[in-house]
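Write out the 3D structure for:
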Amino acid sequence: MSSVHGHEYQIPEFQRELVWKPEQIRQLLVSLVQGHFAGTLLMLKFNPMTPPFAHRLIYGVPSSSGPSHLTTAYSVLDGQQRISSVYYAFRHPSVSLPKGKKPYRFFLKLGELLDEDFDEAVAAEPEGSPEFRTLVDEWIRGEALPFGPVDPSFLPEGASPPYLKTLYDLLSASSGAFLQAYLMGTESPYLQEQGKLSDFLSPLLDYAFVAIVISFSSIFTPSDVIRVIAPLFVNVNSKGTRLTLFDLAVAHLFPVLHGHVNLRDLWNDLPTTHPGLETFIEGEWIDPDDLLRIMALITGGSVKKNALLEHLHRVASDLTTGKTVTSPAGHTFTSFRNLWDEAASCLEKACNRVINDYGALKPQWIPYTSMLVPLAALIHVEKISRDPNARKKVDCWYWHSVFYERYEKSVDTTAMADFHQVTGWILGTSDKPSWISGAVPPGLDLKSEQDRKSTIFKAVLNLIALAGAKNLLNGGSPGTNLQLDHMFPKDSAKPWSRHKWINSVLNFTLLESSVNKAKKSKDPDVFYSSNMVLEHRASGRSVRNTFRSHLIGPGAEKAFSKASSTSPSAVSEFEKFIEEREKDVLTAIQDQLSPCVEPTTYPD
């Protein structure tokens, strides 16, 4: 811990930040308390005065804590998450964990430790929470030890008595004397079991990580070291799921991009350079892997991991040595930054298109976020192409892929095949893909679509949004924050509430909150006559047109207007509404697909 705090251990710039969550850190501590093997660390020994590449400090280590002159340092090639987690737990820095709001604090409960209930013995709670305060009380009573320092403001007197020790204190000095001082000072109920406690604490306090240290002689230049270390880092971290494709790419491309661009900086700057992506990044609807896949597609490569890494390495090598790279659409890239910006720009356009042109008013209503990658790549082709129908061909691909649910599996394979086929169609080098039929999928049963996360459910919502989804009360423009709601209320007192179609997408539409409040659990006939008809009459708008903007035609409207929970025909009117609306929605689906029947004729 002192070596980490003194900057002796550092993280190479191509490594990601700490990503472990509190529970993962807690589980590591549970293992260490039991003395379990926690894996091997891989280090590169280097002279910090002449580092082979840039480094940063372990997460939470203050920049001011290092010595004025350090003669030897170690680059952590494998083991960053473990080292960072142990440091965070034992030093309790004032920063929160990544993506967290408050710092987490870790405690060891002595009673559970003595009972050998190791999982319960290690606790992790956000600072200031009621659970954290309970653990602080247990510390004061001699029942729990914090791993690291505790802010004195959380103590009753606002100051820490000298006998209140932490596990870090026990690491830093004679653990036996410090433990005794703590147990005696707090009048701990475990004072008589000090010897046993010492034995149980020994595996944790005496734990030594196994480390493999490599070094290079002075005849190796920094470039030589980079060429050796980056592939080694990739190979060591290729197993399991600890690193993302982007993490591997950062290291794999580091030897050729070093001195030109920094991939992590490019990604971190994306909300500023391409603000249309900010919401998608914050909501984790897109990730840096998506940018890499788009870059691979628009330079003629594969999106499958190993092939993608090798392809982008070749591309980066060319673009950093004065060569150019040409996309399948004929666009020439002259620099890696130029390629990155094009991929980001196309992704931004793709996100904008699915929201504004394809009706996914919220990112969570996008049928397949995985389609954003091939869509962005096709937008690149669309931009470069001279085909006036390029956009309409991309639309055909999109809606057919959605309603035929083509991205349910084998996403990478499908994305590559689609990109090449549709690109050929746009450029005129191949015919329209055979699966773009212009027809509604055979056997499509919308009545059974009840999962709000399913592709078809979301796609129907998108079509409702595209139809206009006008204010159901008065026919006015829809609001900016539409919500899902049942047309026939789900109130358990209604005779249709237990019908198998009650949660069908056909019984849903997009409503403003004000409409929801007015509608509540009213019977359809009451809402229709007492609210809709009167307010539409006052506004001079057509009820029929408003219903059409929700993909509800005359037949379904008639069933809705007559449906009363007190009527013997209540359930049959509900069924009539669902059946009629299914016809309306299928017509809307057909309207999206049918323009694609002929490869060269499209409506304006």
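The chain is about 45% helix and 10% strand.
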